[in-house]
Write a structure and sequence with these properties.
The complex is a heterodimer of chains A (258) and B (216).
Chain A lengths: L4 E9 L2 E2 L14 H11 L4 E5 L7 H14 L4 E4 L5 H10 L3 E4 L1 H5 L2 H10 L4 E9 L9 E5 L4 E6 H11 L3 E6 L11 H10 L4 E4 L5 H9 L5 E4 L1 H4 L5 H10 L9
Parallel strand pairs in A: 1-3, 1-11, 3-4, 4-5, 5-6, 6-9, 9-10, 10-11
Antiparallel strand pairs in A: 1-2, 6-7, 7-8
Chain B lengths: L2 E4 L7 H14 L5 E4 L2 H6 L2 E4 L5 H9 L4 H11 L4 E4 L1 H4 L2 E4 L5 E2 L4 E7 L11 E6 L1 E2 L17 E6 L1 E5 L5 E6 L3 E8 L2 E4 L7 H13 L3
Helix pairs in contact in B: 1-6
The chains are: A alpha/beta (258), B alpha/beta (216).
């Protein structure tokens, strides 16, 4: 039976995990490779690294993290942050990433999605969408794409944009609600559902997970096929196994391999 | 004993090589794992692994772009009967032809065509991306000791096309995704998985170890 996925996401800056990870006895809580190994052992279905200050100069640091992770963890790995060119994607894949996540570069130049998908296949091109609600009280829901950590409003409708990037070859959508990110109030379910129902590819719900019920909501009500979370796992609030057990009790199919 | 992983420009072979090295170490079958784009290495290898990501036609073009590679594969696998393991599109290439982005000839080792998956449940997403259990259609050495069925271990899939084998005997295992999707094919000394063993944690390493021990 096909299972829904739980994806821990690690924010990485200069080769170090931002804010650290403290859910198990890691020798070095700031080492993304150690964190990845621990999540692998904990039953995570996939891992996501986000390079939060990716630049030309420090690109090599992230590639080294990806390379060392791929040597130790035999599980799928998505890497995002500063992915702007076909060469950026090639370097990530050659280092051991399975999927590259494109964010701003797809907003500014849609053709990049097509070039990337044609070069590497749809299955390894994830388009990350940061969306914020722009409709007012009593108006029909409308979300727009925001860039630069939610500061720049683009005027682009999030659902239309999702359809467009999928038609260009995106194999998966990583959808983050900028309204909910960091709030622990749960996913923006209406947004998740609007996007998931609009596109034929898998949608990963992201932004706002504060408890295990939120993970269930994202799948059951948001129609996502995967849920991404960071802090509830990183800071030991819950283990991935607890999350899966909770989702299984709610009737969702999860992978509980020993 | 040597294991050749064929490098023909189709994506990342780092993970595959590491997974084979790890499985070899774990089983005490310390066979050298050689990532190579040289037909000579492939022709004389004791075992051959053909990975592949992306589109069928692209991968076929990649193989053809290396002079002598298809001949070397035929030499090692078809004439010498060396154990062969195709992964994802590397498995699909064993078919007669692929129908992704036009019709492309495959290696013709397993009669059948590669077509888009068509789940009966319209809410199921394409690609089939994520973890799924396997249902065995027949016993195979690659599945030795691996729990299958709904309570079995999971394999990691990411694909939109599948190899539909013309002879049902070539279908070793399938996965359920709005109907049966081809997961493992096998014939003679050849085997192929649609899923990625190098990304399938416990099941994947076990399966690779089984391949390294396989003496068909």
């Amino acid at each position: 039976m096909f299972k829904v996925r739980i994806i821990p996401c690690l924010d990485v800056k200069d080769g170090r995990v931002v804010k650290g990870i403290n859910f198990v006895d890691l020798r070095d809580a700031g080492d993304p490779v150690e964190a990845a190994i621990a999540y692998d052992a904990a039953g995570a279905d996939e891992l996501c690294f986000l390079d939060i200050n990716a630049s030309h100069e420090n690109r090599g640091i992230m590639l080294d993290v990806v390379r060392r992770t791929a040597e130790a963890c035999f599980m799928p790995l998505t890497v995002g942050g500063g992915v702007r060119t076909v060469d950026d994607i090639r370097a990530l894949l050659n280092s051991g990433a399975d999927k590259a996540s494109i964010n701003t570069a797809a907003v500014t130049r849609r053709a990049f999605v097509k070039e990337a998908a044609e070069k590497f296949g749809d299955q390894c091109i994830v388009v990350a969408i940061d969306a914020k609600k722009v409709s007012g009280e009593g108006e029909p829901n409308r979300w727009e794409i925001f860039t630069h950590g939610g500061r720049n409003r683009t005027g682009i409708d999030a659902v239309d944009y999702a359809r467009e990037v999928v038609s260009l070859g995106a194999g998966e959508i990583l959808l983050t609600s900028m309204d909910r990110d960091g709030t622990k109030q749960g996913f923006d379910i209406a947004l998740t559902r609007a996007v998931a129902d609009a596109v034929p590819v898998p949608v990963i719900a992201s932004g706002g997970v504060g408890n295990l019920d939120h993970l269930v909501d994202g799948i059951r009500d948001g129609h996502a096929t995967a849920v991404l979370a960071a802090s509830i796992f990183h800071f030991g609030q819950h283990t991935v196994r607890e999350a899966k057990a909770h989702m299984a009790r709610a009737g969702l199919p999860v992978r509980l391999d020993p | 004993m040597s294991v050749a992983i064929v490098d023909y420009g189709s994506g990342n072979l780092h993970s595959a090589a590491k997974a084979f090295e790890r499985a070899a170490r774990d089983t005490g079958h310390s066979q050298p794992i050689l990532v190579t784009s040289h037909p000579d290495d492939v022709a004389r290898a004791d075992r051959v692994v053909l990975p592949g990501v992306g589109a069928f036609a692209d991968c076929r073009r990649g193989l053809d772009a290396i002079p002598g590679m298809v001949e070397a594969l035929n030499e090692a696998v078809r004439r010498k009967g060396r154990p062969f393991f195709g992964i994802c599109v590397g498995m699909q290439l064993m078919a007669t032809r692929g129908n992704e982005h036009g019709v492309t000839e495959g290696l013709g080792w397993i009669p059948g065509e590669v077509d888009k998956i068509a789940p009966t449940d319209p809410t199921l997403k394409i690609p089939h991306m994520g973890w799924n259990t396997l249902n065995a259609n027949r016993p195979h050495a690659l599945l030795d000791g691996i729990p299958v069925g709904s309570d079995g271990l999971h394999a990691y899939f990411v694909h939109s096309y599948q190899l539909n084998a013309a002879d049902p005997a070539d279908l070793v295992a399938s996965a359920d995704y709005g109907g049966a999707v081809t997961a493992i094919v096998g014939r003679d000394t050849m085997v192929g998985t649609q899923f990625h063993p190098e990304k399938s944690q416990k099941l994947g390493l076990h399966l690779i170890a089984n391949f390294l021990k396989w003496a068909p």
